[in-house]
Amino acid sequence: MSGCSTKESDINKAIQVAKEYKTLELEASKPAQNTEVSMEQIRNKEESVKPLMTSVFFEQNAASRTYQRAFAISQYKQSEIVVSDLEFTKKNQSDDEIELSYKGTMSFAKEQIALDGIITLLKENDAWKVNNDVYNMEALIKILDEMISK
Question: What is the DSSP letter of 142?
Answer without folding.
Answer: H
